[in-house]
Amino acid sequence: MSENALTSGDFTEENEPYALFGSWLADAGKSEPNDANALSLATVDETGLPNVRMVLLKGFDERGFVFYTNFESRKGQEILSAGKAAMCFHWKSLRRQIRIRGEIEVVSDAEADEYYASRPRGSRIGAWASKQSRPLESRFALEKAVAEYTARYAIGEIPRPPHWSGFRLKPVSIEFWHDRPFRLHDRVEFRHADDARGWTKVRMYP
């Protein structure tokens, strides 16, 4: 067994982190009262000042971690400009945390169309009505926009707005953290080398 092999019962011996992430997400789905797929998403604006907000993970596989948003929103503009972001999942009920850092790519139109079509009709209308992150003169103005688009798309399918799609974070590192007594936590980071070596595991001091 190598020096950095994982010995805790909470961690897998696999050389890639996605199975472990899936296991932890499934555990969170059983214990978290709301939105086990919620994560904090960190981006950076044009001045270098960071922004962070909560979004929902909508899918993951070996290509990365996917979420959807309005590309004209603040986070959309910051991601398109920087091409990088970071995520943090924190499950209080499990005393677990996962941090992910990496580069961003836009999902395919087919992926975005498929997910958009799966959303409730009201959410699809909202994607048209909300000028996300921009000043709103009143709640009435938003409700008026919703009513206008509801009337416009009263019958048939609602097309996906051209400014609404998804991002995929392609991780260069994924860190798993589990609370332990006396703050002697388990902390293991998977690092991805951009070559045939794939993932390496490193156990970190807490």
TrEMBL record:
Positions that bind substrate: 58, 115, 119, 123, 183-185
Reaction catalysed by this enzyme: pyridoxamine 5'-phosphate + O2 + H2O = pyridoxal 5'-phosphate + H2O2 + NH4(+); pyridoxine 5'-phosphate + O2 = pyridoxal 5'-phosphate + H2O2
Domain Pyridoxine 5'-phosphate oxidase dimerisation C-terminal, residue spans: 164-206
Domain Pyridoxamine 5'-phosphate oxidase N-terminal: 30-150
The protein, known as: Pyridoxine/pyridoxamine 5'-phosphate oxidase
Alphabetic keyword roster: Flavoprotein, FMN, Oxidoreductase, Pyridoxine biosynthesis
Cofactor(s) recorded in Swiss-Prot or TrEMBL: FMN
NCBIfam families: pdxH, PRK05679.1
Subunit structure: Homodimer.
Organism: Shinella curvata
Family: Belongs to the pyridoxamine 5'-phosphate oxidase family.
Chain residues that bind FMN: 53-58, 68-69, 74-75, 97, 132-133, 177, 187
SUPFAM superfamilies with a match to the protein in the record: FMN-binding split barrel
EC number: 1.4.3.5
Task of the protein: Catalyzes the oxidation of either pyridoxine 5'-phosphate (PNP) or pyridoxamine 5'-phosphate (PMP) into pyridoxal 5'-phosphate (PLP).
Pathway: Cofactor metabolism; pyridoxal 5'-phosphate salvage; pyridoxal 5'-phosphate from pyridoxine 5'-phosphate: step 1/1; Cofactor metabolism; pyridoxal 5'-phosphate salvage; pyridoxal 5'-phosphate from pyridoxamine 5'-phosphate: step 1/1
Molecular-function annotations in GO: pyridoxamine phosphate oxidase activity
Lineage: Bacteria, Pseudomonadati, Pseudomonadota, Alphaproteobacteria, Hyphomicrobiales
Cofactor binding summary note: Binds 1 FMN per subunit.
